[in-house]
Automatic annotation (TrEMBL):
Residue ranges of the TM segments: 52-74, 86-102, 122-146, 167-190
Ranges where the Tripartite ATP-independent periplasmic transporters DctQ component domain occurs: 62-192
Pfam families membership: DctQ
Subunit structure: The complex comprises the extracytoplasmic solute receptor protein and the two transmembrane proteins.
Function description: Part of the tripartite ATP-independent periplasmic (TRAP) transport system.
Record has RNA-binding as a keyword: no
Compartment(s) of residence: Cell inner membrane
Name recorded for this polypeptide: TRAP transporter small permease protein
Main location: membrane
InterPro entries attached to this UniProt entry: DctQ, TRAP_DctQ
Length: 202
């Protein structure tokens, strides 16, 4: 059949020419360098940790909501501490998901540039520049997030009902932003290598 003879890309990343951190690191595993093997090993452990964080926090959030309904409407004994636990679990789930989506590059992107030009040099430079700008902006956000965490830690701020340290909530966005910055840095590294390649470098 004619469709069987077509060279269909294996994934949208291959079709659109985008570099995905997870795929680039996996491809680097085949390299003979010890750096490639070490990077792959560390990244796989990090990805496994992210999956566990998202799974446990989402499971805990679901069970917390069920417990709240049972205690409030069946036992008529509402526990206000659940109102503090829910945002805690949700934050860890959200920011873990943000890191994981950055790893797979599944966040929303415009992709308008590919409609204007098909020049791989221009597209490669534009994507590397966009990643660099995103990384810089994320570092600025991380700085202010760290300032908030440090402030709450210094004053010993605690939650109203459970009396848990406030940094348990705050650490979620610090860890999330640090993980996103790591994957954006990896993405930028591979994009710069790609730009060098398409511009005739070695």
């Amino acid at each position: 059949m004619a469709t069987e003879e077509l060279d269909v890309p294996a994934s949208p990343d291959a079709q659109e020419g985008r570099i995905t951190p997870a795929r680039a690191i996996k491809d680097e595993q085949g390299a003979a360098s010890s750096f490639g093997r070490a990077l792959t090993f560390v990244e796989e452990r990090l990805a496994a940790g992210l999956r566990w964080i998202m799974f446990l926090s989402l499971l805990g959030l679901s069970l917390t909501m069920v417990a709240q309904v049972v205690m409030r409407y069946l036992l008529e004994w509402p526990f206000l501490g659940i109102e503090e636990m829910a945002p805690l679990l949700a934050l860890w789930c959200y920011f873990g998901g943000m890191v994981y989506s950055t790893r797979h590059r599944t966040h929303i992107e415009g992709g308008i540039l590919t409609l204007i030009t098909s020049n791989p040099r221009i597209i490669g430079v534009a994507r590397a520049l966009g990643t660099a700008i995103a990384l810089v902006v994320l570092c600025v956000f991380f700085y202010y997030a760290y300032a908030i965490v440090q402030f709450n830690f210094d004053i010993g701020r605690k939650s109203a009902y459970l009396r848990w340290p406030r940094y348990l909530w705050d650490l979620s966005f610090l860890v999330g932003m640090a993980g996103m910055a790591l994957y954006l840095l990896i993405q930028l590294w591979f994009e710069l290598r790609h730009v060098k390649l398409v511009w005739g470098g070695r």
